[in-house]
Amino acid sequence: MKANKFLKDIFKSGCLGISIGYCISVLISSFMGSFSIATPILISKVGELRAAQMLVAYSFLIGASFKALSFIWKKENLSLWMATLIYFTLNFIVILFAGYKMCWFRKNEMSFLLYFAIYTVIFIIIWLIYYIIAKKNVRDLNESLKKQ
User: Fold this and answer.
1) 95 and 127, same structural domain?
2) C-alpha to C-alpha distance for 7 and 14, rounded to whole angstroms
3) b/e map of 90-128 (b: 16 or more CB within 10 Å)?
4) Do the Cβ atoms of 25 and 36 come closer than 8 Å?
5) Containing domain of residue 18, as a range?
6) Which of the four pLDDT bands, split at 50, 70 and 90, describes residue 1?
7) By 3-state DSSP, what share of the chain in percent is helix, strand and coil, each rounded to 5?
8) Mind listing the pLDDT tens digit for each residue in 32-81?
9) Pick from 55, 56, 69, 51: which is nearest to 123 by CA?
10) CA 64 and chain centroid, separation
11) 12 and 64 in contact (C-beta within 8 Å)?
């Protein structure tokens, strides 16, 4: 039963990834002045329909990987630092693969470093939010236990 729920959660996260991928396309297109489902380089290589299909597939993969790899947080033999490093690295590999296939960055060192920096900043912000929430939940739980 637990595995079935985990698979459903992975699927839901994949669908959330599609939603986020599409929203990012709309957001970037808003700044560009016209809608584009993908980068002009990708569209010129594979066409607009194939680029849209790829966006769905790779966005699903990214969303699903974040949930699928969440088991790392439950490994009690890993420190928070080590679990974070493993989770960060494995998800970066997935995002790097998707970014390469989707032509989200140029194939040079500077573009790769910028891509890595953006991923790192977003990851740190989200990680800090989750950390602060978890710390508050633990503090609230401890306070309620002390009252009993």
Assistant:
1) no
2) 10
3) ebbebbbebbeebbbbeeeeeeeeebeeebeeebeeeee
4) yes
5) 2-104
6) low
7) 85, 0, 15
8) 899 999 999 999 999 999 999 999 999 999 999 999 999 998 898 999 99
9) 69
10) 8
11) no
- Could you tell me if 92 and 116 lie in one domain? no
CB atoms within 10 A of CB 21: 23
Q: What is the DSSP string of 65-111?
A: HHHHGGGGGG-TTS-HHHHHHHHHHHHHHHHHHHHHHHT-S-SSHHH
Pull the structure tokens for residue 49.
């329909």
Q: Let me know whether 100 and 116 are in one domain.
A: no
Q: For residue 40, what are its two tokens?
A: 């002009």
Q: How many residues does the chain have?
A: 148
- CB-CB contact of 60 with 17 (8 Å): yes
Residue 7's identity, in one-letter code, is L
Long-range contacts at 48-57 (CB < 8 A, ≥ 24 apart): 51/102, 54/101, 54/102, 55/21, 55/22, 55/25, 55/102, 56/18, 56/21
